[in-house]
């Protein structure tokens, strides 16, 4: 079985995290059903214009792909508001298409508030990749797992933890220390899916992905 997956999102770092994470979910789904598949990705850069026009363009360009993933952070909105503002009307137009112009297997990925919130789900994995022995308290990682989607600035919290760790390093050590841009692939590969399931935005994404995959393996 060959699976052709397309992705369009907000930036290269988020894309790396989301594609690695998505591939893990797909592979687990298939492995649980003893299905072997080759996965191929097409990364589609975000184009100028509104969310509506971007989704329509991407869905048209990805018409021959099996699934199109569309990522956009919720920012200061909740999941529902972000979906209504940036996805709903375009998805409805695509669903109503009778001419086969668009990819119908669309999956919205809407982290609340941003992708980095998903990267905060396992503090130990974050600390391992920063290569720090400091405590959660030292690194100001004192949030509750169940309240990650209420953290105001997830990316800033990761940056702050790196900065605190770097304060104990020599100038030479800091030159080679981890940068936040290095963490997206690493954490995407390592964060337990069970930890991410504390987040409503992840559960919505995973459920929709499994729904689409089910329709493909059980047509």
Features of the shown structure:
single chain; 219 residues; alpha/beta; Rossmann fold; four-stranded parallel beta sheet; 52% helix
Structural overview:
- This protein has helices at residues 12-32, 51-61, 79-86, 88-95, 115-119, 123-130, 154-167, 171-175, 180-190, 193-196, 200-217; strands at 2-8, 38-43, 67-71, 106-109.
- It has 219 residues and is an alpha/beta fold.
- It is built from eleven helices and four strands, in the order βαβαβααβααααααα.
- The chain folds into two domains: 2-112 and 199-217, Rossmann fold, CATH 3.40.50.2300; 116-182, no CATH class.
- It has a four-stranded parallel sheet, with helices on both faces.
- Helix content is 52%, strand content 10%.
CATH topology of the largest domain: Rossmann fold
Helix-strand category: alpha/beta
Helix content estimate: 40-55%
- The counted number of beta strands is 4
Shape: globular
């Amino acid at each position: 079985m060959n699976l052709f997956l397309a992705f369009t999102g907000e930036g290269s770092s988020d894309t790396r995290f989301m594609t690695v994470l998505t591939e893990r979910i797909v592979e687990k789904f298939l492995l649980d059903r003893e299905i072997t598949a080759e996965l191929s990705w097409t990364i589609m850069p975000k184009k100028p214009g509104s969310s509506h026009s971007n989704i329509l363009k991407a869905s048209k360009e990805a018409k021959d792909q099996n699934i199109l993933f569309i990522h956009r952070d919720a920012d200061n909105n909740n999941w529902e508001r972000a979906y209504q503002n940036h996805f709903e009307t375009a998805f409805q137009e695509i669903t109503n298409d009778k001419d086969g112009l668009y990819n119908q297997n669309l999956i919205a990925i809407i982290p609340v508030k941003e992708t980095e919130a998903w990267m905060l789900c396992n503090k130990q994995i974050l600390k391992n990749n920063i290569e720090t022995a400091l405590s959660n308290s030292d690194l100001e990682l004192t949030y509750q797992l169940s309240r990650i989607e209420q953290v105001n600035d997830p990316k800033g919290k990761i940056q702050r933890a790196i900065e605190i760790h770097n304060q104990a390093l020599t100038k030479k050590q800091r030159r080679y220390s981890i940068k936040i841009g290095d963490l997206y692939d690493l954490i995407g590969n390592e964060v337990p899916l069970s930890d991410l399931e504390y987040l409503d935005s992840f559960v919505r994404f995973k459920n929709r992905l499994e729904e689409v995959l089910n329709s493909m393996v059980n047509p």
